[in-house]
Each structure stands twice: as C-alpha cells, then as structure tokens.
Design a protein that fits this description.
By secondary structure, this protein is mainly α. The chain has 5 helices and 4 strands. Strands 1-2 form a two-stranded parallel sheet. Strands 3-4 form a two-stranded antiparallel sheet.
Length: about 140
C-alpha cells in the first residue's frame, strides 16, 4: 500500500494545497500526519479543520505542544539562551495562533499522541521528537 506522511505544515495554506494536489495525483492508501500543523502560518484554523475532517491519524508536533502547553516553549527557551531575542517573536506568534484556534481546536491538538502505530496490524510507527530532544529515539541513552 502506498503511504504518505505529511508534516510541518505550520499553518501554510499554499504549501498544504500543493500537498493535497500531489496526494490527489499519487492516491496513497494511507495518509498520516507528523504534527506541527498550525503555528506561524496565516491559516492555522483552516489547516487544523481540514486535517480533522480528513480523519488522518497522526502525532503531536513540538510546535503543537508549544501552542497547547505554553510552558513547553518556556522550557525550550531556557535551554537556548542564545536565542532569547527570537523567543519574543515566537511567543507573540504563538499567542496570536492560540487565539485564532480557540480552545476546542487546541484541545484536539493537545490530545494527539506522542507516538502512533497505524494501523495496529501493520509495522508503521510514527513518533514525534520532543522539544529539546536531540538523540535517536530508537537508541538507548548513553551512560
């Protein structure tokens, strides 16, 4: 079965429409999303609504977590002091996106899993990287 995984749309409707056009051409039997759906683009509401309407299974992305759990952004910012000037802009964009999405869409994003095996009878595993995580998730941490 042909499988498509889309990720990192970041509220970019133009890019999402290009992906949808490609999906119509390639006709995959399974479409998964890897999160990072809404933050920083001009169309977060439209993107979240369409993906929910399509019913594509997926995982929460790090920017989805940043939107639904603002403390995660602050934790990441503390670990990256050299980027503090950038975080003021990121906070402002996140606040605007949260307001546009509203609580119901934020709750949907919040409830996306960190990992998903789809479908259970197959060997597909979709896993998201946590904010600040920089190691291979399939390898044990070094001692």
């Amino acid at each position: 079965m042909r499988t498509a995984i889309i990720s990192d749309i970041h509220g970019n409707r133009t890019a999402f429409e290009a992906v949808l056009a490609d999906l119509r051409t390639t006709s995959p039997g399974l479409i998964l999303h890897g999160g990072d759906l809404a933050d920083s683009g001009s169309s977060p509401v439209e993107i979240v609504d369409q993906i929910r309407d399509f019913g594509w299974p997926g995982v929460v992305g790090n920017t989805d977590e940043m939107l639904t759990t603002p403390s995660s952004l602050e934790d990441f910012a503390k670990a990256s002091p050299h980027l503090q000037n950038l975080f003021a802009t990121i906070r402002e964009m996140a606040d605007s996106t949260r307001e546009a999405l509203g609580e119901e869409r934020l709750a949907w994003l919040r409830n996306l899993p960190l990992q998903r095996i789809v479908p259970p009878s197959r060997s597909y595993m979709l896993v998201r990287e946590a904010l600040g995580m920089r190691r291979n998730l399939m390898q044990p941490p070094k001692s």
